[in-house]
Amino acid sequence: MLQRFFILCSGADTDILNTCSKGEQNKYAGIGATVFFTALMATIACSYALYTIFETIYSAVFFGIIWGLLIFNLDRYIVSTIKKRNSFGQEFLQAIPRLILAIIIAVVISKPLEMKIFEKEINQVLLEEKNEMTLANQQQLAQQFTPNIDQLREEISALKQEITDKQAETDALYEIYINEAEGTAGTGLLGKGPVYEEKREKHDASLSELNSLKAGNHQKIQEKENQIALLNANYEKSVTKTQPIIDGFDGLMARINALEKLPWLPSFFIFLLFLAIETSPIIAKLLAPNGEYDLKLQDQETSLETWVHQKVMQRSHILQTDTELSQKIYDEIKEEEAVYAYKKQKAEELMKLQADAFQKAEIRSL
């Protein structure tokens, strides 16, 4: 039962193959098994590739089976159309388009399986790329907010510096009127005289201005710090909003590009493996000598070709003979007087009718 199924997969003529030896049947069963398992691997590879796209197993398996059936049909067609002849050169020329198609199929099959085999390495490459993209995204977003934040911080520093300068000025006035009271500077007189009162008034006025400046600048500083906090919150919100896009950067194209960044030799060996599997039925048929099945198939085809050629030749001779007979018959009829007289009579009657019809048409036109 299994052998019959694999023979069916090989595309061989079962009626002819049933009359061949067991060895010949086993050979084509092996070719059919190769075709079947190649289609099975194509189904698995396509299902995995589609799963990375749709992320639903049912859709991936459904379309994977369709793809596997397509590859099965192509492989079966490729193997079944290679005919064994006595010239290896003609056989090789016949197989070249099929070999090219087999190479294309091998590439299509091997690439998704390579992504599955090297999944961990691909994930590592994608993780590094995501980290780089995250940093680049943060830097790009920061360029939108950093100038405004820096400007606000400079304005805050200027406001604080203004308070510091005013504080230093007030402290200096305080030192002056204290030294005046102690008699260590200024007039040098101990006690609170007119000069002391004057300097004390300057200090008090400066202190009042300082307190007013602190109140106003602290309010401005608080407003600017609130603006900075709002800009930072907007920046964090932008980063949070764009991060899922970066986290989802693991589709089919991203994985193929990540695979290309890995060492090429392991992927090349996997490709060679599938290429060998895909082309093995074709190469086996090219290298194998003419078997019993090939000879019987050739006999059947040449027999039919000969029969068709014979029928065409017979029809050609029949047509030629019929043409010659018809020509001879008409030549003999042409020489008979009775036929001549009858044709003459009919021609005269026809000419009279034409003349009468012409006369009537001319009279109606007058």
Automatic annotation (TrEMBL):
Coiled coil: 142-169
Keyword line: Coiled coil, Membrane, Transmembrane, Transmembrane helix
Transmembrane segments: 28-51, 57-74, 95-113, 268-288
InterPro entries hit by this protein: DUF4407
Name recorded for this polypeptide: DUF4407 domain-containing protein
The species this protein was found in: Euzebyella saccharophila
